[in-house]
């Protein structure tokens, strides 16, 4: 093996990546790997290229090889879990997910309870520790009915803003906020087991067949929903009421998930629907109030219970990948999720499967070209026209 030859192929691969020529990059990386098959860095970079090419299963295998060659690598398992889950390798992916959460995130706290390894839970108590962001916690809450049906007494540590709606939806679950210092309930040694919230999927969602066909599992405040529905119905004057969210404030891939206001023009120009502003954060003021109803009584950032009531009061939700998308699906509202082609698309949307396993009421609209949203907006616009015609 000539180190110069390996370097030459690596340089060619990296040049191709920078030029956006992913197929050429793959060929060059494979030539380098043929000369240096034990180099985990080459396998990791090949995985990145394969993901951009949409070959997620192969990307998962490549990053798994990188991790196998260098178990001390901190990046490989972080990339491996979402790739395996996105590829539908659920058993493998959940095991990696649990490993990474314990090793790198909130799950590494020294807690007194033994980890739950799928043991029967009838008559037992379990602590579910905080995991991921608001959207993912909403999604993982779909597993609470399984644990309740198993006979478990549940303590859930979660984002404090979710406590009102989770308390209404799951009155038998003890809810404590994720905070610093941690809530005393988290260190209760009398609890039989502990499990990172999302890692419960290893035991409860080992296959796509294990996902229930739910019609929504969160319950919005009925009185608040009725009040908002009456307000929006009056403003709509017979038109459908549609919640719209176009921007993600996520630190990682927020830009890739967000759509510029100018690109939304074909949708906002429609006069056959009432658009309701379901955007959170600073982007909430980006659209002129003449084109969208911005309800000052609803603060989607600070009051998720009010945000849920607003979504429940709408006929449909059209959104980018965000907490709004998760709320729409968890409430069982018809939810259209606009997704990036590769970079910035989370593993759990599964657009290729049609109906989403987490949210059966959700449908996905995916970019044809990375970072190009006009085709998505055009497709959503046509789908909305068709839907409105069918409703009349």
Structural topology:
Blueprint: H1 3-18, H2 22-35, H3 40-52, H4 56-69, H5 76-86, H6 90-104, E1 125-129, H7 134-140, H8 144-149, E2 153-158, H9 163-169, E3 174-177, E4 193-196, H10 201-204, H11 222-236, E5 241-245, H12 254-257, H13 265-268, E6 274-277, H14 304-312, E7 316-320, H15 323-330, E8 335-339, E9 362-366, H16 374-391
Parallel strand pairs: 1-2, 1-4, 2-3, 5-6, 5-7, 7-8, 8-9
Helix pairs in contact: 1-2, 2-3, 3-4, 4-5, 5-6, 7-15, 11-14
Kindly describe this structure.
The longest helix has 18 residues, at 374-391. The protein has helices at residues 3-18, 22-35, 40-52, 56-69, 76-86, 90-104, 134-140, 144-149, 163-169, 201-204, 222-236, 254-257, 265-268, 304-312, 323-330, 374-391, and strands spanning 125-129, 153-158, 174-177, 193-196, 241-245, 274-277, 316-320, 335-339, 362-366. The protein folds into three domains: 3-104, Tetratricopeptide repeat domain (Serine Threonine Protein Phosphatase 5, Tetratricopeptide repeat); 111-210, Rossmann fold (3-Layer(aba) Sandwich), CATH 3.40.50; 222-391, Glycogen Phosphorylase B (Rossmann fold), CATH 3.40.50. It has a five-stranded parallel beta sheet with strand order 6-5-7-8-9, sandwiched between helices. α3 (40-52) packs antiparallel against α4 and α5 runs antiparallel to α6. The chain has 392 residues and is of the alpha/beta class.
